[in-house]
Amino acid sequence: MRVAVVGTGYVGLVSGACFADFGHVVTCVDKDAGKIERLKKGEIPIFEPGLDQLVASNAREDRLFFTTDPRDAIKTADAVFIAVGTPSRRGDGHADLSYVYAAAAEIADLVEGFTVVVTKSTVPVGTGDEIERIIRERRPDADVAVVSNPEFLREGAAIADFKRPDRIVVGTDDARARAVMQELYRPLSLNETPLLVVNRRTSELIKYAGNAFLAMKITFINEMADLCEAVGADVQQVARGIGLDNRIGSKFLNAGPGYGGSCFPKDTLALVRTATEYGSPVRLIETTVAVNDARKKAMAERVVAACGGAVAGKTIAVLGLTFKPNTDDMRDAPSLDIIPALQKAGASVRAFDPEGMHEASKMLSDVTFTQSPYDCVSGADCVVIITEWDQFRALDLDRVKTLVKSPTIVDLRNVYRPAEMAAKGFQYASIGRG
Ligand code: UDX
Q1: Cα(216) to centroid(ligand 1), Å
Q2: Is there an atom of ligand 1 within 6 Å of 388 CB?
Q3: Is residue 401 part of a domain?
């Protein structure tokens, strides 16, 4: 099949490379000429494990192309994927759909023959209807079916998630479109991946409902962690104790500093807005958003408390800046709340992150970025682990102890065990282990 992907951000690039790897001929289109030039040279603008090799091998085999000119790609495509950004609109939390609608208009002008237009971008319920209206208005003669096909990729595991998904959701009532989508995902049928065909609005809502549920699950365990601290219980054992119940499941029950990233914060807000607009409020999700925001802001207080009530004049070493490991993405990362709050309280901050320092340097000021975790902790009054990168899970703690000024560690991801840390002579604070 021939596929065009409009937008070479995270979702577009991963989807394009993976469809090419399935054997389809894929052209990724983006208006950003610099980005396309770099992609043609094999330079990947984001950090995603395995993506560089996947792009390189499929480009070499002539299945993956990059261009700023959408004409040929769209004209010849069986399916055109819209994978442009849908940022939160400033002020009101609505998803900003201007890029999606601009892409729809461009596609309308160029399609030839039966073409399936697929939204991969996360879009509010009803967006598919509007895309269809735009296309029909501009090109009443166009033979298109507009389909919703949300992605469920996690950053850092995106290729595995694309190639071994729990399910594929396709929103369409059109039999021809359904056949095209089945053909596109056929390689996955070997693993018997369920392909759920539903109507378009249902598909659009499944994406938001899924992310909102996961955000709520994390927020639930985070509140349980606070309660554990108050009553002297252990949140990891509570998570295991409830997670072994199949109805609950053990995933996404790691307590931490609050969720961040490009999806959960944006999608929960957008769902709240949609629900309010339709007069059917989602109060659990409204609360999830509020509790998570407050949690990220409150994390700095834990560091202050661990430092004896004040951080003025002290040096804090931060290990991990990104919103989670294996990404360079800083969007809505808890570190962006924690570090400025510590600075405001008078601390100087040193930081190390394996991939995120370049992005972080644009969003944080007056932070000393260091070359290694050990360099980072040198002379620190307190070490704070914000992101659970593998290399922070097995630090040489004896070495850390010789380097720091004071052996105080605040572990916001529960990477270490309290008893072990006490035995090593650290003053150790973690999450939900009263
Ligand atoms: C998420 C969804 O998982 C994915 O299906 C969707 O397509 C996009 O949004 P992503 O944002 O890449 O993926 O990261 P994810 O691994 O889900 O983590 C999101 C945030 O939740 C991170 O800040 C992470 O640290 C936090 N989290 C996750 C927890 O605090 N505890 C957990 O148990 C799991």
Answers
A1: 11
A2: no
A3: yes
Dihedral (Cα; 208, 210, 213, 219), 10-degree rounding: -90
pTM, rounded to two decimals: 0.94
User: Confidence class of residue 121 from pLDDT cuts 50, 70 and 90?
Assistant: confident
Residue closest via CA to ligand 1's atom 31 equals 254
Shared domain for 22 and 47, answered yes or no, is yes
Chain segment 277-296, per-residue pLDDT in tens: 999 999 999 999 999 999 99
Q: Are residues 274 and 413 in the same domain?
A: no
- Assess if residue 203 is contained within a domain: no
Q: Ligand 1 test: best mutation among 263, 288, 296, 386, most atoms within 8 Å of CB?
A: 263
Are residues 260 and 303 both part of a single domain?
no
**Percentage of the chain lying above the pLDDT 70 cut:** 100
Active site residue 263: yes
As a whole number of angstroms, the distance between CA 365 and CA 44 comes to 26
Q: Over the Cα atoms of the chain, what is R_g?
A: 23
Q: Can you give the residue range of the structural domain that contains 216?
A: 208-289
